[in-house]
Amino acid sequence: MEALNLPPFEYKVTKSGANYLIFDILRRKQVVLTPEEWVRQHFVHYLINTLAYPKSLISIERGTNYNKLQKRTDLCVYNAEGKPHLLVECKASYVPITQEVVRQVSTYNQTLRAPYLVITNGLQHYCWQVNFETRQFQPLQEIPVFASPL
User: Fold this and answer.
1) Strand 84-90 to strand 69-78: parallel, antiparallel, or no bridges (unpaired)?
2) pLDDT score recorded for residue 150
3) CATH architecture label of 34-140
4) Which positions fall inside the Type I restriction enzyme R protein N-terminal domain (predicted)?
5) What is the pTM of this model?
6) Residues 38, 1: contact at Cβ < 8 Å?
7) Distance separating alpha carbons of residues 86 and 97, to the nearest angstrom
8) Burial of residue 82, with CB atoms counted within 10 A of its CB: 0-12 exposed, 13-18 middle, 19 or more buried
């Protein structure tokens, strides 16, 4: 797999038939190692090891409904009250981050209402703070670190 623009982490890859599998520390099982999963696993470890988000607040491929359609979010990080805080869309490294990808994530977020959106392909990362009252997206230079409640 390709080196990404994210900190390296210790991972375990095994082969099962025609597939390679990587151990997912959140789901606590081996999952098929696709290019998108490679990015997702790196980003999960980045959230936990660099930005100090607790594993217990991160959900992978959570189902949500939008316009009567079932959608799945790549990563959703919750705050201490259990409300969505950070929504992350992961793409394979060869997938460009386009306006359509931004539209996809913001559409999911109309239901979840997370105040922060992140899109990454492992090489480029974009983060916005969302103001739902004004419907404005403020680009951020960095992804917010976890702020534990006092």
Assistant:
1) antiparallel
2) 43
3) Alpha-Beta Complex (3.90)
4) 35-144
5) 0.90
6) yes
7) 18
8) exposed
Q: Look at residue 88 and give its three-state secondary structure.
A: strand
Q: How far apart are CA 13 and CA 96, in angstroms?
A: 26
pLDDT per residue of the chain (150 residues) written in tens, 0 to 9: 889 999 999 999 999 999 999 999 999 999 999 999 999 999 999 999 999 999 999 999 765 555 555 567 789 999 989 999 999 999 999 999 999 998 888 888 888 899 999 999 999 999 999 998 998 999 999 999 998 654
CA distance 104 to 61: 15
Rounded to 5 degrees, φ, ψ at 43 are: -70, -35
**Residue 147: CB partners within 8 Å, gap ≥ 6?**
none
CA distance 82 to 96: 32
Q: Which of 30, 35, 27, 2 is nearest to 16 (CA)?
A: 30
> SS3 for 27?
coil
Q: Dihedrals φ, ψ of 6, to 5°?
A: -145, 155
Domain boundaries of the chain, sorted by first residue: 34-140
As a whole number of Å, the CA-based R_g of the chain is 15
